Amino acid sequence: MRRDVKKHQKNVPLRQSNQPTPARRKSTDRLASSRSPIVGDLCLAMNAIAPLSAAADWDNVGLLVGDRAWLARRVLLTIDLTAAVLDEAAAGRFDTVVSYHPVVFKATKRLVIDRRQQEGIAAECLARRIAVYSPHTALDAAPGGTNDTLAGLAGLTTLQPFSSAAAGPAQCKVVVFVPDSALDAVAEAVFAAGAGRIGAYEKCSYRLNGQGTFFGTESTDPAVGHKGRLERVDEVRLEVICAADPAAVREVTAAIRSAHPYEEPAFDIYPLVAIPRLSAGQGRIGRFEKATTLGTLAARLKKMTGATAAAIVGDRRASLTRGLVCVGAAGDLPFAIPGGIGGGDVIVTGEMRHHDALRVQRCGATALVLGHWTSERPVLGPLSKALAQTLPDATIALSLADADPLVGE
To answer: How far does Cα 255 stand from its chain's mean position?
Structure first.
């Protein structure tokens, strides 16, 4: 079994997300070397590489174990966080593990150290102060991520996702009008409430000078001017982005009311439409640059991934034109693409159910099944390079204990 994927690192390097950010530099943003990296830095770096907003809605991604304030000086990359990988992390003094598959997935009622249970391994990580981050389907969807890496190894070009992922979670724009003397206080209050975050940037806002008017009735007690007459006040229009979640909006508006000097501050909330990222999404469709057959492709990918139990659906002599790549378990995804699948198409995946294999045959297409773990492991090389660029003061290593639980004879 081949566990070292360093030779694959030259294939389809992970790209930073193209999500627009204020004053983004052309070169890759790097963590300042004036301090040791912390888990929060790792979270920002991973979200730039594989935005969590692109993950499947059923998934559990992001920081799953630990504290953002913990150190992340030594980071171990793995597909699965098994007991063997945990021992490797402890022995190597790794303080952070990036585990492609979530170490906690289902709702958990108790956390007790027990290596027979996945939640028990998570509990032990917590006890050892080892943080765990999982990108899973966010990395599948990311440009240069898990699917792009396998598609590159297959020799596919002009790649597109099965369907485009949204540019981010539902957001809204909060606009509040503030006198200049209270601007900084109100801005800091809404930032502390979670507003003003765009990608890896915080405290983002837009400010425009203008003039506001009001007339206070006899029942008012205006902080500026006097009741009973029309007042004109120089104000600043402060705009920030906020999650559209009702709880988040309530927290931000409460912060406005608390920090604003006016008895009745004026603010507006506008819903924003997420723009799809055409280069991100689940699965990949591409075309073979050179003519090939199912048998030739199988031999190529077995050699490049170290697959020990690859299986094919269809005739080895079948000529291939288009490839549909879906790492892990393909499920229904390849069958749901516009136009469907047919002759000349091959589905490259990690595992396939019996009845889905029959569907492939009925469509006149073919399939290459490499093994779930085997289809995903090659991404760790490009991921390590991308993290090393963003976290130059951290040691990034690939797990040697990470292994396919299914071993061919």
So the answer is: 29
The domain 155-165+279-375: what is its CATH number?
3.40.1390.30
Mean pLDDT of the chain: 87
Q: Domain ranges for the chain, please list them.
A: 6-143+378-398, 155-165+279-375, 171-272
CATH of domain 6-143+378-398: 3.40.1390.30
pLDDT at 223 over 80: no
**Domain 171-272 architecture:** 2-Layer Sandwich (3.30)
Sheet holding 74-78, edge to edge: 62-65, 131-134, 96-99, 74-78, 395-398
**Which band of pLDDT confidence, cut at 50, 70 and 90, is reported for residue 302?**
very high
Cα separation of 404 and 372, whole Å? 8
pLDDT digits (tens, 9 = 90+) for 116-160: 888 889 999 999 999 999 999 999 999 999 999 999 999 999 999
List 238's β-bridge partners, or say none: 176, 207
Residue 25: which residues within 8 A CB-CB, separation 6 or more? none
Cα-Cα end-to-end distance for the chain: 11
d(CA 379, CA 398): 11
Helices in 306-394 by DSSP H: which ranges?
354-363, 372-376, 380-390
